[in-house]
Amino acid sequence: MPVMDEQGQIQIHTENIFPIIKKAVYSGHEVFLRELVSNGVDAISKRRMAAMAGDCSEGEDGVIRITVDREAKTLTIADNGIGMTADEVKRYINQVAFSSAEDFLEKYKQEGDAIIGHFGLGFYSSFMVAEQVELVTRSARPDSEAVRWSCDGSPNFSLSSAERDQPGTDVILTLMEEELEYIEPARIRTLINTYCDFMAVPVQLEGETVNKMNAPWRKSARELTDKDYIDLYNYLYPFQGDPLLWVHLNTDYPYNLQGILFFPKQTGRADWEKGEIKLYCNQVFVSDSIKEVVPRYLLPLRGVLDSPDIPLNVSRSALQTDRRVRSIGNFVAKKVADRLRNVKKDDPTAYAEAWESLAPFVKIGAMEDDKFADQVAELILFATSASAADGDTPDPISTGDRAFTTLEGYRSRLDSNNDKRILYSTDDVAQAGALNLWTSQGMEVLKLETVIDTQFIPWLEQRHEDLTFQRVDAELDDSLKDIDAEITDQDGTTESDRLRDLIKTALSNDKVTVQVQALKAEGAPPAMILLPEQMRRLNDMGALMEQRLPGLPDHHVLLVNKRHPLVEGMLKLKAGSVLIGDAQSSPTEALAQDIARHVYDMARLGVGGLEPNELSGFQTRSAELMGTLMQRGM
Ligand SMILES: Nc1ncnc2c1ncn2[C@@H]1O[C@H](COP(=O)(O)OP(=O)(O)OP(=O)(O)O)[C@@H](O)[C@H]1O
Question: pTM, whole model, 2 decimals?
Fold first, then answer.
């Protein structure tokens, strides 16, 4: 065997590439390990393929062994893959590896550090951490000799004969002083767990296999149990509880994409900014924030996307406008919609139970993406005041304590004269009075209670041009009122007129419109606040933009229920008051006005419209009024 001893210059165009690598790629040096382990895994699969073709021996099962030597300050990454002959080292290391280094640096200059996880840095990334890199490699092809390639960070390399019993490659890094953290096994272990966990080949650190290997998303959904999915979720996102549901993605045309996405249970805590979906490329971890790949509304999803077809050596902004990436994003959205449709079909109750967590994705998605809106049109649920359907009809769906309906389901139950108006409430407590008026007359009310609904309702109206959404306290229709003929006095005034006058005088506030009606519902309150729909929406929008609570708009309607005994009594008092000179000085008139103001405050209290500093005055007046009325024997 001729003894080889060769010196040479690596053919690169950039003068002295190593300091540039070191300087330019200033952050994320740790990815060198991912690159070297990936090369080992590639070499192992190349050997397997070559062995199948009968070109080389098969050898033992593939394994990557990582060892450290504190004394020598070396970190060794060894594989039993295909190895290289001297010629191959010259070709692949001296030429391929370093020409890709040049390409990378060229790109890097333009794109800055936006290049995702510096993916595809390759072999030369070793020079980010090592002052000297040695390769001892022996090809698996028959009659191959081992060779040693060495390079000290200048463009000069040496190549010589070496000893290696078995085929494979050792990459021996002599670490720089400032990179000695990579001599610590604990640090290496963390890096293996991050980048190499799901690689198909065992990665051993000082003899112990560290990576998980099994990547469930590479299997078909049929091979996995619910537990497999839940285990993966808990492994990737510890201490976050179990996922709500998941979507298994698997396609090889027009691009190759595998993955499992999870809907977390608590979307309230979800990350809508950065995203928590992990991107892999052939089971190698790339990044845990890929907001450029999935549509924004899917960012709170978690899990894994694995695709060799997502370009990784481009900047993030280029990724966002990449056509293939866009179509991958659309594919993911469609699969999410398909999965939701299946859950709703197979187990409507489970779907309804999950709905509150799903609603933010689905509603925002529908508003932001027309295609998604069509896909989820029948999957949007609304909590409803209706009770659950009895067996035969699928809608409303009961979850035990609540019932849910689709918009179509709701419309199908509307009376045909009135099938364009959708009644809704946003707060069971603050709108309890108005809600009760409708429900007691058998009307169904949808509950649109989340912040998103403030924008979702106008969006629904735009999409269904024939529909109008009306909050329960916007206005009342005739079905809720007793329209009896009013008795008119000789002077042409009615009871309602007198009541309205009394209250208007008592409140002396032009912004409050007073309406008098006889309400049908049992237990209807003496008065309630109504907020006409459009005016209230403007107020809500303004509040949302200023990030304050909407509060009670200055302009509102006070609806007085003349059927209520308190209101009836108030009118009697007024009628019985004796005019002593100036009307205001009559104690009875004053009492009637006090009661009118009190009725108004009670209505405001009911909708949370009484300011905290008004509460004590309200309390004092309550006690005074009760006292006065008792003294009068009323
Ligand atoms: N451990 C190894 N065993 C066998 N061949 C190797 C090994 N490491 C590197 N090589 C050879 O050197 C070439 C260059 O490696 P390098 O890591 O720079 O680029 P790459 O793996 O081809 O692509 P990438 O830039 O995506 O990593 C490889 O294509 C391979 O032929």
Answer: 0.83
